[in-house]
Amino acid sequence: MAKKEQTVEKQEKKAGSAKKGNAKTVDVVEKLPEKKADAKKQDKSEDFSIEQKLANLYRLQSILSEIDKIKTLRGELPLEVQDLEDEVAGLHTRIQNFQLDGKDIETAIGQQKIKIADSHALVEKYQQQLDNVRNNREYDNLSKEIEYQGLEVELSEKLIREFTLKSKVVAEEIQKSRTLLEERQSDLKSKKEELNEIISETKIQEEQLREKAKQIETTIDPRLLTAFKRIRKSARNGLAVVYIQRDACGGCFNKIPPQRQLDIKLRKKIIVCEHCGRIMIDQQLAGVE
User: Fold this and answer.
1) Of 200, 218, 236, at which residue does a domain stop?
2) Which pLDDT tens digit goes with each residue over 20-71?
3) Which of 49, 71, 126, 181 is the most exposed place for a label (fewest CB within 10 A)?
4) Do 138 and 127 share a domain, yes or no?
5) Angle at 124 between CA 119 and CA 129, to 5 degrees
């Protein structure tokens, strides 16, 4: 009986291990379709011909160029607004500095007037003392003091005239700066309104263009897309795909040999310019007559 029970247990273990093996096989089989699906996604761009890839690249280039135009249009205005804001702030500071200069001049004029008053008081004092002098030496000293105070009065009056002229110049500069400030503030207001209007108008358009660009990117081979972005980044005008113009590259305008032009028109392979490295297509593919 014991032997029979051992035999039954062994058979059950074998059956269990067989079931586990079958389960693993089922799991592997179930996972295979997912891998195939992923592979299909990766190979989606590879299903296109060279001609289709070039056409998709040019479509992507056209959309990105439109986005660049929007950025350029919007990019100039913020700089202008920033410049005007800096100029307005500078004019405010300039007016404040002139006002401080005006106050300093008024203070200086006040000080000179006080000096004149003091000098006049001293002159009166010295003249009274002249009546009580006891010798020629005292008389000469008082006379010199009176003469010196007279010169001090003349100097103070001269400085007051100079300060008054400066005060007028400062007042004129303040008026000019205020007039210019009003003009710049008006310009700044109009530029800000224009910028806000452009932003509101182009925001939706830019978002739509970016969505189209993303859709086209899914149809382009990842390596080709990476190369396209690299070329576009290094190009001054952002053009990575150009068509032949007057037997020359549409990017750097260097002449293209006839045989190479023929290869480009055949669309059998992706050809780049020998000089600038841009991807080249023929005019027909670009939709240009």
Assistant:
1) 218
2) 444 333 333 333 344 444 444 444 555 678 888 888 888 998 999 888 888 7
3) 49
4) yes
5) 120
